[in-house]
């Protein structure tokens, strides 16, 4: 991609979203150090506003053509803006859920909104990276904040275990990313994506370059919970506080997918015949393993972990096509998947009995009789994630299937169809418990307005009537991909 270079002064206006988030984090650290945990609510509110404003700035000042900023280290283009909007909106929703939850459980600490914003800043850098060093800096900034969030409950054994497992296994993925990047640099002689693309076009690297790319794809597969690099996901989802789990299930997935798309369709576009097989294999394994693994779960958060693995397989199905329709389908899939996932975790967060959180499938028993509105929201959200028509999730699955079939990946599409049927089984098992089982002895407690608003808004976004807005979403995604690749 040939983008006009600009100097640092002219870069600053186009880097408004990143500068805003960095400025908030620096000021919040000072305020938090001064006012301690008394500033938690104020910083959380300001953090939500900062994230929403960053999304608004990214959209409002999106250029008509790709523009490189910060001396070519980053680029502002269509896919970057689309991904930043999804990341910021999902992070804002989960930050609001977390602030409300931690106030209720008296676990508020001022570092929470700062960690969320710093993680999002790392994701913004990831999706706009134009060289291997910027890519790594973005990944690590996001990961370092995520380690802290996973181990948020320092006195809780499960949360500490989640943080430790995430840290150790993520360190391995970081090593793979660096090792792969060193191969790419060694065989192309450059860290910049445009120079790598030129070298690939001239036939440089051969098997060694492909080996480096595979290592990088493995590292990014870890970040997006793609099998067989998913081993951290169930334990971290279960052990981390539920608002943190909701964050992990949303924003980092978008960043990892957008970064993988940028790698595949920019510097390594000339190797599509090779990497297509690798991405298709990751997709098939993720769909199969995620769907089968979820059937065996009794904990809702672990079940959603395996569900996320399967759903990332469907996203990778779109990317594996090698055509522009692939990234379009994957971006739309994510845009439709995120609200439903956040809504489900909001409802899991609302499940409390006798002041304690409950998270098992059995705790959903008879929910339709004791909490009919909550049961109705669960039903719509689960239908959407399962891809059952006419809910929004069905549109996302349909688009990735079309992209795969158009690219000749009929076998992968068949694996996806079987995985979707298997996945429907465990979603229907939850709904059967909600609607047809006898209520548990003690009813669930009531939930606050933040949870109710988040879950209701998520369900509304999956409702068939609002799917009519998909036309505008698809037009935006197609324009973004056309501009970027």
Automatic annotation (TrEMBL):
It is found in: Cell membrane; Endomembrane system; Membrane. One of its GO terms (molecular function) is quinone binding. The chain crosses the membrane at residues 20-35, 40-61, 81-98, 110-127, 133-152, 164-184, 204-222, 243-265, 277-296, 331-351, 372-392, 398-419, 450-473. InterPro entries: NADH-Q_OxRdtase_suN/2 (IPR010096), ND/Mrp_TM (IPR001750). It is an enzyme of class 7 (translocase). Residues 129-421 form the NADH:quinone oxidoreductase/Mrp antiporter transmembrane domain. It catalyses: a quinone + NADH + 5 H(+)(in) = a quinol + NAD(+) + 4 H(+)(out). Keywords: Cell membrane, Membrane, NAD, Oxidoreductase, Quinone, Translocase, Transmembrane, Transmembrane helix, Transport, Ubiquinone. It holds the Pfam family Proton_antipo_M. Its EC number is 7.1.1.-. It comes from the Bacteria. GO terms for cellular component: endomembrane system; plasma membrane. Its main location: membrane. GO terms for biological process: ATP synthesis coupled electron transport. It is a multi-pass membrane protein. NDH-1 shuttles electrons from NADH, via FMN and iron-sulfur (Fe-S) centers, to quinones in the respiratory chain. The immediate electron acceptor for the enzyme in this species is believed to be ubiquinone. Couples the redox reaction to proton translocation (for every two electrons transferred, four hydrogen ions are translocated across the cytoplasmic membrane), and thus conserves the redox energy in a proton gradient. NDH-1 is composed of 14 different subunits. Subunits NuoA, H, J, K, L, M, N constitute the membrane sector of the complex. Belongs to the complex I subunit 2 family. This is NADH-quinone oxidoreductase subunit N.
């Amino acid at each position: 991609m040939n983008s006009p270079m600009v100097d640092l002064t002219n870069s600053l206006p186009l880097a408004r979203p990143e500068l805003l988030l960095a400025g908030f984090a620096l000021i919040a650290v000072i305020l938090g150090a001064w006012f301690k945990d008394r500033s938690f609510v104020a910083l959380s509110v300001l953090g939500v506003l900062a994230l929403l404003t960053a999304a608004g700035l990214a959209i409002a000042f999106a250029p008509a053509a790709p523009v490189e900023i910060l001396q070519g280290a980053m680029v502002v283009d269509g896919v970057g803006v689309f991904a930043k909007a999804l990341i910021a909106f999902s992070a804002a929703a989960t930050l609001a859920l977390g602030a409300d939850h931690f106030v209720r459980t008296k676990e508020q600490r001022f570092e929470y909104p700062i960690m969320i914003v710093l993680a999002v800043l790392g994701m913004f850098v990831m999706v706009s990276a134009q060289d291997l060093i910027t890519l790594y800096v973005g990944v690590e900034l996001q990961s370092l904040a995520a380690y802290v969030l996973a181990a948020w409950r320092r006195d809780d054994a499960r949360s500490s275990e989640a943080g430790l497992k995430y840290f150790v296994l993520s360190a391995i993925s970081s090593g793979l990313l660096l090792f792969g990047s060193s191969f790419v640099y060694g065989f192309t002689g450059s860290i910049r994506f445009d120079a790598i693309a030129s070298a690939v076009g001239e036939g440089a690297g051969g098997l060694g370059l492909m080996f480096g790319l595979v290592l990088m794809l493995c590292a990014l597969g870890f970040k997006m919970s793609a099998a067989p690099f998913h081993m951290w996901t169930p334990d971290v989802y279960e052990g981390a506080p539920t608002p943190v789990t909701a964050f992990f299930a949303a924003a980092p997935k978008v960043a990892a997918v957008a970064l993988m798309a940028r790698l595949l369709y920019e510097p390594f576009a000339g190797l599509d015949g090779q990497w297509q097989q690798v991405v298709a294999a990751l997709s098939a394994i993720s769909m199969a393993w995620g769907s089968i693994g979820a059937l065996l779960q009794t904990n809702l958060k672990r079940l959603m972990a395996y569900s996320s693995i399967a759903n990332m397989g469907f996203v990778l199905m779109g990317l594996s096509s090698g055509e522009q329709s692939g990234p379009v389908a994957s971006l739309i899939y994510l845009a439709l998947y995120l609200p439903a996932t956040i809504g489900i975790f909001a409802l899991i967060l609302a499940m409390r009995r006798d002041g304690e959180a409950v998270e098992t499938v059995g705790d959903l028993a008879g929910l339709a009789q004791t909490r009919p509105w909550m049961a109705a929201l669960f039903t719509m959200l689960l239908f959407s994630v399962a891809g059952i028509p006419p809910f929004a999730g069905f549109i996302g699955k349909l688009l990735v299937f079309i992209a795969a079939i158009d690219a000749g990946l009929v076998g992968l599409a068949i694996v996806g169809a079987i995985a979707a049927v298997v996945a429907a089984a465990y979603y229907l098992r939850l709904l059967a418990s909600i609607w047809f089982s006898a209520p548990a002895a003690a009813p669930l407690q009531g939930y606050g307005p933040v949870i109710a608003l988040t879950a209701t808004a998520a369900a509304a976004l999956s409702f068939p009537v609002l799917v009519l807005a998909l036309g505008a979403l698809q037009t935006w995604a197609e324009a973004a991909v056309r501009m970027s690749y």
